[in-house]
Write a structure and sequence with these properties.
With 334 residues, the chain is mainly beta. The protein has a domain of 209 residues: Single-stranded right-handed beta-helix, Pectin lyase-like (Pectate Lyase C-like, 3 Solenoid). The protein is 5% helix and 36% strand. It is built from 1 helix and 18 strands. The protein has an 18-stranded mixed sheet that branches. It is globular. The termini are far apart. The relative contact order is 0.09.
Amino acid sequence: MRPRLLSLCLLAIGALILYGCGGDGAGGSTGTAGTGGSTGDAGASGNAGTSGNAGTSGGGTSGNAGTTGAAGRGGATGTAGATGRGGTTGSTGTGGTPATSSLCTWPTTSTNVMVNATITITGVYDGTMRRFVGTGPLGSGGQNENQDPIFHLVEGATLQNVILGNPAADGVHCDGNCTLKNVWWEDVGEDAATLKGTSTSQVMTIDGGGAQKASDKIFQHNGPGTMIIRNFCAQDFGKLYRSCGNCTTQYARHVQLQNVMVVPGSSTSALVGVNSNYNDTATFGSILVKAATNSITICQRYTGNNTGAEPPKNGAGADGTVCMYSASDISWMP
């Protein structure tokens, strides 16, 4: 090797020994974790951790950043309010008021339907307030027994919004459960309506309407079961209701009168007639009689028979067994 090149190498080696290569700087210390926020309504956030010091120069790596403080816990949930109490129960309503004269506001119509053969009703039949008048075989207008009716209702049928004119033959026959709603008889023929059938649980309901000019009975009850008469007007009649006194087959029969206005005629003998010996019952509520007090009999009791003989009377008035009502159930209006 040449002397000059050797000298340069020795100088370089000496410089390396004198200065050396730069060492790695020590890492910055880890920052202290922030203290968690104290528990509160909405918990405060913890303080951020202190950043670590940067490494010293000399090529060392930077210190790690301090750990972020944990978030404070949320405040406790507030207690729910107590459930409100329900309203108090309403008091029981008082009984219905007595019938009023508005029950005897009669409808009018200019549409007549002439009927020469009985109309049989199944389901619901709405007469739309037309007047049905008997003619031909249904046109006698007398009191002869065994006349055919204008309407025949089978089990479960309803007749509504009908006016029966004059003549009306034997009105309406019902074979079992049936309803007459807003039916009016302008001039009752033999009877306005008759409940037949054979079931002790059958019910005939007369709701609304009215009947007048019945020289004998308005409603005739031949079969068993119950007849309900309510919201009804009865004018100029012999009896509003009669349990058959001398039918070949006899039953215990029941009638309920509720909210009925009665305008007696000169021939009126009783509001209802029942057979005490067959355990009939009659109940009354909210009855308004447009007559002098005690001018008619409210409930007449008979001893019925199955021989066809005329049944004798055996008492009248409330007795708590057959004729069931109190003085407050009957109102009188002179």
